[in-house]
Design goal:
By secondary structure, this protein is mainly α. The protein contains 40 helices and 11 strands. Helix 10 crosses helix 16, helix 12 (about 200-220) packs antiparallel against helix 13 and helix 27 (about 550-560) runs antiparallel to helix 28 (about 560-575). The structure holds a DNA duplex (15 and 15 nucleotides).
DNA sequence: ACCTCCCGCCATGCT
DNA sequence: AGCATGGCGGGAGGT
């Protein structure tokens, strides 16, 4: 059913082909069959046949194999989606097999587990699609086809897709079908997630957990009180544990049915997991901590091992996918107890979408406000599942209580958890290579190819990819992999919120967002709360329908060239603005938007500073407005569709579906900017959306939340200029720290640019890692840069530092304030990303406490200094 | 012995 | 009823 509709709308091409979604399997199969007799299995995903795998032994061999297998795919990616690729890829693989087989061991050839790993599978999967697909083209993904092509069970594909979906890199169209969005929306999504994570106070949670552990070890009880408070606050605000998904707009809702499980799912876990990285200073998160937080701090004590183990297993699954995306990498944190597996964020530095105000408070709510203007919003009510009936805060309250209790308990009792205290450090990364060498190599190649291809892609559009050119790249160059980021920036930038630049913005956060954005957002409520969501359209009032231009054009542009993208973005911004209230600021924002596009990648953080005070006011105002609307969500998240635009088709569909309010057009893209605004998690925020879609969102912040937020204090925060000097991120950090008591108000974490990098870049580093950091950063920088510069930096590793960084135009200060805000990142961000590997544990603990142990370092301060 | 995490059973829920 | 999804955890490969 849906499919048909979808097809009609969306799909231009493919769909037609595929037509029956249902059975894609059939189609593909048929194809396969034709092509590959070998595979045989029609529907059933057979298992791996792949030969390619063969040699576990030599990594190089594996790489070759993989590459060979992959490259073809890459070539074909765009076009074929399924059909063609299979052919090419398969044959090759087979060939390989034969060769190998002849060689020796079937056994080996068989699979080795590694070869079957989800990470590798994910690489293969990713190799099939461009990082920045041309929106114009259909980028449909037929799960059955993919499963066949990759010779894996469909179940595995679900794992991958679910994680990708959580990042909005794909969206579900229909039954076996997903649409590939690539990284266009990634930054936005990450920004949103970061905002949400901030709202949820994950950083604090992490700290607390570490602290507890630490204390346990030492038998500290003192701090305990503090912790409780923190926890409470957290829980109260959001039940972080409960969080819901942050969804992107357009895509998912359609499969409402599917949504049922969302709350629990891997998707949510994935998002939460990502949030942890985005929120935590060291950006290194141990599995234990992640598992605990995901389970819910409240329950931590309760955890039973089985539950914990299960969580860990899932986290590995997620981590494998994220690693394939180069968003994280595995590291080991050494603690007192020993090494703990952990993952370090290696993705782009992200500024919280919400832009504006948020820096101060975690409550991005203000941000949300800003966004609200955006016209298109997609709202969903996903959460049917949960039982929570009221939106009221019940959940939150409950959680609070639980959390409190649990905290106390925890304090008393040592956690069974394996975890231990931490130690400091960071171990840095380490590498797990040995075992995974092969995979890594494979990946590297893939990345290289992609990179090379991307530029082309841009140029051409999608097709380019096919020419994979250089697949051959030596594995050595892992560096390249990093490059990936590049192109995409175009798109994203828009997404980023420029808004913030103005200090003013804080005051009027609401408006700002729009300009740039226009894009629609989707909001998710936490499942629990979601129910309450009901408020459908009622809220809409705020919305401004902006006549945004359509995304489609923009989309194309994005794909095509960055420049174009930029332009488009600008256009978009302009168009979008209309609705906005904001005057000047907005304009700036708009500008920003442009810049963003360019800088976007770089910038990750658009952050802006805002006045806390203003924010409050703002929130209040909003509340007033929204109150009308009614619903309250404990927490909701908005995500900008923006990219989805890419989805143009989808968006359109959605609009149709929605029918109501918005014209389809609007919805689409309006502004990429939008980033996400996280609605304040505070319970109060109310968002409205018609259940479905388009309606404009409104966000309301609850007063309470506002109150909660400590705004204002940090000097850093002050925003004064349009250009935000600091990064939002840094601001946030400072804020947080202060809150926690970790830092004195006076102290701020500066965002130092990385070494060398722009001053603009916000960075916060973890303490210990310093030296390393620099290194890391560079590396990262290279990645980012690469995208921009594209080929410029060849593989090389490294990069020189930051400098290179960003390609983007953004000049830091210079030109536009706005731009800066967005971009600042350019240089910085990358570096920033490099934050030291230090373990959270160590760092956090330290921070914790003012109270706490001196031993630890205060990372923040030290590094910042720089 | 522990870390990873593949595999696939089987529950769910839409069609 | 059938099929698509995907939660879940046993248990095996790797180290």
């Amino acid at each position: 059913m849906e499919n048909e509709k979808e097809n009609l709308f969306f799909e231009p091409c493919k769909r037609v082909l595929m037509k029956t979604p249902l059975k894609e399997s059939n189609t593909p199969n048929t194809v396969l069959a034709e092509i590959q007799p070998d595979l045989g299995p029609l529907t059933t995903p057979t298992k791996p046949k792949e030969c390619s795998q063969g040699e576990p032994w030599t990594p190089t061999a594996n790489l070759k194999m993989l590459i060979s297998a992959v490259s073809p795919e890459i070539r074909n990616r765009d076009q074929k989606r399924g059909l063609f690729d299979k052919r090419s890829s398969l044959p090759e693989a087979k060939d390989c097999l034969h060769e190998q087989l002849s060689g020796d061991e079937y056994e080996k050839s068989q699979p080795s587990r590694k070869e079957k790993s989800l990470g590798l599978l994910c690489h293969k999967f990713l190799a099939r699609y461009p990082n920045y697909p041309n929106p114009a083209v259909n980028n449909d993904i037929c799960l059955d086809e993919v499963a066949e092509e990759l010779n894996v069970e469909r179940r595995r594909i679900y794992d991958i897709v679910n994680v990708l979906e959580s990042l909005h890199m794909v969206s579900r169209l229909a039954k076996n079908r997903y649409t590939w969005h690539g990284r266009h929306n990634l930054n936005k999504t990450l920004g949103t997630l970061k905002s949400v994570g901030e709202e949820n106070k994950y950083a604090e949670q992490i700290v607390m957990i570490k602290k507890k552990e630490y204390e346990q070890e030492f038998d500290f009880i003192k701090s305990y009180n503090i912790e409780d408070h923190i926890i409470k606050s957290n829980s109260g605000q959001n039940g972080h544990s409960d969080m819901c998904f942050v969804e992107l707009p357009g895509v998912e809702f359609r499969a409402a049915s599917v949504n049922s499980r969302k709350d629990k799912s891997l998707r949510v876990m994935s998002q939460k997991f990502v949030m942890l990285f985005l929120v935590s200073a060291p950006q290194t998160v141990s599995l234990e901590i992640a598992a605990k937080i995901l389970i819910g701090e409240d329950h931590v004590e309760d955890l039973d091992k089985s539950k914990f183990k299960t969580k860990i297993r899932r986290l590995y699954d997620i981590a494998n996918v994220l690693s394939s995306l180069d968003l994280i990498k595995k590291v080991h944190v050494t603690e007192e107890r020993g090494r703990k597996p952990a993952f370090k964020w290696t993705g782009p530095e992200i500024s919280p979408n919400p832009s504006g105000p948020s820096p101060l408070t975690p409550f991005a709510s203000s941000d949300l406000e800003m966004k609200r203007p955006s016209k298109e919003n997609c709202a969903k009510n996903l959460f049917s599942t949960r039982g929570r009936s009221n939106f009221t805060r019940h959940p939150s309250l409950i959680k609070l209580v639980k959390s409190i209790e649990s905290d106390r308990r925890k304090i008393n009792s040592a956690p069974s958890s394996p975890i231990k205290t931490n130690k400091a450090e960071s171990s840095q990364n380490s590498a797990p290579f040995p075992s995974k060498m092969a995979q890594l190599a494979a990946i590297c190649k893939m990345q290289l190819e992609e990179q090379s291809s991307e530029p082309k892609k841009k140029m051409k559009a999608q097709l380019a990819r096919s020419g994979p050119c250089k697949p051959a790249a030596p594995p050595d160059i892992p560096v390249n992999a990093e490059l990936e980021l590049t192109v995409p920036s175009l798109i994203q930038p828009l997404g980023v919120v420029p808004l913030i630049p103005n200090p003013l913005s804080s005051a009027v956060p609401v408006i700002l967002p729009q300009p740039p954005s226009g894009s629609s957002y989707a909001i998710y409520l936490q499942p629990t709360q979601a129910q309450s969501m009901t408020t459908p359209q009622g809220l809409s009032p705020t919305v401004c329908p902006i006549p945004s231009s359509k995304a489609t054009g923009s989309k194309d542009s994005t794909d095509a060239t960055t420049e174009k993208a930029t332009n488009d973005a600008a256009k978009l911004n302009a168009s979008t603005k209309p609705g906005n209230l904001l005057p000047a600021p907005e304009k700036q924002a708009a500008k920003n938007g442009d810049r963003e596009t360019a800088g976007e990648r770089g910038s990750k953080r658009a952050s802006m500073l805002e006045d806390s005070g203003s924010l409050k006011k703002f929130k209040e105002d909003l509340q007033g407005l929204e109150n009308v609307s009614t619903t309250l969500f404990p927490s909701g998240y908005l995500i900008p569709l923006t990219q989805c635009s890419s989805l143009g088709a989808e968006s359109i569909l959605s609009s149709k579906e929605n029918s109501d309010t918005l014209s389809p057009n609007h919805r689409i893209y309006s502004s990429p900017i939008a980033g996400i605004i996280p609605v304040t998690s505070s319970e109060l925020t109310a968002v409205n959306f018609p259940s479905f879609h388009v309606t404009p969102l409104k966000l309301m912040v609850s007063p309470t939340t506002v109150a909660a937020v400590p705004v204002g204090n940090s000097p850093a925060l002050t925003s004064s200029h349009p250009v935000p000097v600091q990064n939002p991120s840094s601001a946030i950090v400072n804020f947080t720290l202060r809150h926690l008591g970790l830092i004195s108000p006076s102290v701020q974490v500066s965002s130092s640019p990385g070494p060398g990098t722009n001053p603009m870049s916000p960075r916060i580093e973890a303490v210990s890692g310093i030296p390393e950091n620099s290194g890391t950063q560079q590396g990262r920088a290279s990645r980012y840069d690469s995208p921009v510069s594209g080929q410029n930096q060849p593989n090389g590793q490294s990069v020189a530092v930051a400098g290179a960084q960003q390609p983007v135009p953004v000049t830091p200060k210079g030109s536009q304030v706005v731009a800066e805000s967005f971009f600042r990142t350019p240089g910085g961000p990358t570096k920033w990303a490099g934050s030291s590997c230090v373990d959270l544990d160590g760092a956090n603990k330290t921070s914790l406490g003012t109270l706490f142990v001196p031993q630890r370092k205060l990372e923040v301060s030290t590094e910042d200094v720089h």
